Structure formats: structure tokens, C-alpha cells
Amino acid sequence: MSLRFQRLGEEISPSETTAERFLVGSLPDAGGSARDRVISPWRPRHPEDLLCGHSATEIALNLILLEGPPSRGAVEGERLSIDNLCACFCLLQPAIASRHREILLQVAEMGLFQAWGTRTAMNVYQRLQDLLRHARNCRQAEHETFLSCFRHLPGILASDPQSLDPRPEEHAELLLEQGPIDRELFHRRFTSYRIPRRLHRGVYYKALRISPVDAPLDDPSLLSCRVRNRLDGDRVQLVSVEAAEGWYHDLLYPSWMVADSPGRSRAPGLVAAPRAGAWRLDYPELVQVISRLGERERNTGRWTLRPEIHPLERSTGRAFPVVLYYEDGRGNPAPSSLPPHELADRLCRLFSPDRWGD
């Protein structure tokens, strides 16, 4: 019996009862039996556990490296995503995946955490995005989409990146390099971005958009998470967008912080919540600063701090990695009267390197 890919929730046959089942992208409590292996960055990791990684793809590749390629059992993808797709592929095609380890790791984090990638990784990522877009347009079943991507991925990995159009987010990079978007580095754990009104010309959708997980390279954001993360992926970021009535403000934590990321220290205040895979913000000093900001605020609205963060659930208001923003009381972004420099001066002290445990 060989390793096979099966539909989510499919019952295993009597002959497979002693074989392992690899649950890719599942939450920590998803395992149904002692033979189930959860391949997921959302699971809590014990200090002595060697099988770890920043993404499901890295965990799958580390499993192959430490334990050898699995030869029997079943692989299930919890949901269709770039990371889960790559992780399942690694388990099913370990020889090919091991040859392209670094590219697959980049591709996974480009989808999962809006990370930047090399030109080759961008090519692979966008080709997978094109397959997923075609599947959505054709209303293809999720299981069939997994299988289709598995068939195409070896050829994509072997293709010449120079023959493809990766459509990188060059426009936003140019805006940063030439100065219309102002970036200020306060210290190695905090940076701020200011988008002037003349740049977005009132088209707030693009200026305020938070790129979702698995966002394509042609995402319409004026300043996408991926472009900012190329420079500041390990920093807390304050993004301010100028408006006629003041400034829209978002405070963002690095998006990888909600994963089980070995070797990386988290920003202060982010602690595990009782629910599986969930996190909450417990930072009294940040709450005190928010209270002072509210006292100085002249516009109608309020400062909102996200009470809980869950990587697999949608919530009202601004999407993670935004953890603090000014809103109109109904969850919609609203302009604050406070200028960016005042916020940055107050907030950067709360995220100094010594508070991260660096």
C-alpha cells in the first residue's frame, strides 16, 4: 500500500487502520486517532519536538529529512491554500520536493504570511495562483483542484523563470524608492509608513486594503503587505493614510506570529488563547497608550484593539495582521485627528527590542 491523497474526512479502509494519516493544515485538536499526524504551523509545539517549521510545507519537508519519506497511509488537506497544497505535494512527491526545498518554502510563506520571494519563487507562486483562479472560475471541486495542482507542480518547478511573467509588485516598490510613500525606521523592531493623500486621490479601497492570505502578485493594494514585509517582515508596522479629515491608522504585527514559528521571538502582548490555534493581546501598557490617544482624539470614532486572533477564521473589522486601528464604531476604518508622528513616537517605545526578548 502506498501513500495516497484522500478527500477531507474520508474514511480509511480496514487495510489502512495501522497506517498513518497526515492531516495537513489542521488545528491542534483535529487528530482523530493516535495514528494521525498533524502537519500544521497552527499546532502548539513542545520544546523537545524536532518536527517543527514556520509553515506546513516546512514541517512536511523536515519530516522527510528526519524520518524519511512516508511510504504508506493517507494525506488530507484541511483546506485549499498555497501552503497546504505545497505541503501535501511534499509528502506525495518527496524526491521532487526535496530538490526544490528552498523554492517551496518561499512559495508557502508568500501565501501564508505575505512574505517576499525570489523571482523563481514568484513564478511558481503566480502559476499556482493561475491554476487556483481557473479552478474557481470553473467551480471545480476542492479535491480535484488539489489533484490538478499536483499534476502541474513538477513542470512548474522545472520551468525557466525567465520565460514567465511574475508580475511583481514593482509599482509599490517604486513608490517607496522614489519617495511618495514615506518609510521611517525607528529601530529594528518598529517602522512606520505614510501614504499621502495626493497618491491615492481618495481611492481609499486600494490605500487601506489589507492583502489576504494567498493574495496574488497583482493584488490591487497600493502598498501591499508583501512589499512592506520585504523590508520589515520582522517588525511591528504603523501604516498611516492621509485623508481630508486626518489620518487612517493601522498597527500591524508580523503575520507569522500566529504560527508556531521556531527561532523567532514574538512581539510583546501576544499570548496563546484557550481556543485551539487562537491568540489574544494582553498588553496593559498598550491599553494605557490607547486610552491616552482616545483622550487626545478630536474626531468621532474610537481606537479598537483586536481581542482575539485566529488564523483560520474571518472576523469583523480590520483583518489580521492589523491589531489596532481607528474606526467609526461599526468596524469601518475612520480618519483620526492624530498625526502619524505622534502615534509612532508613543508606540515605538512599546515595541523596543528589549521588550521582544531580543
Reported for the largest beta sheet, the result is: 6 strands, mixed
Radius of gyration: 21 Å
Which regions have little confidence, pLDDT < 50, spanning 5+ residues?
none
| Overall number of domains | 2
Number of strands: 13
Helical run tally: 13
In which order are the strands of the major sheet placed?
5-6-7-8-13-11
Question: What is the overall shape?
Answer: globular
Can you offer a commentary on this structure?
The chain is of the alpha/beta class and 358 residues long. The chain contains 13 helices and 13 strands. The chain has helices spanning 56-67, 82-92, 94-99, 101-112, 119-137, 142-158, 170-178, 197-200, 204-208, 225-232, 284-296, 340-348, 353-356, and strands at residues 3-5, 21-24, 36-39, 73-77, 182-187, 190-195, 236-243, 246-252, 270-272, 279-281, 302-305, 308-309, 322-327. The strands form three sheets. A six-stranded mixed beta sheet has the order 5-6-7-8-13-11. Helix 2 (82-92) packs antiparallel against helix 4 and helix 5 (119-137) packs antiparallel against helix 6. The mean pLDDT is 86.
Which key features would you list for this structure?
358 residues; alpha/beta; 2 domains; six-stranded mixed beta sheet; four-stranded parallel beta sheet; 13 helices; 36% helix
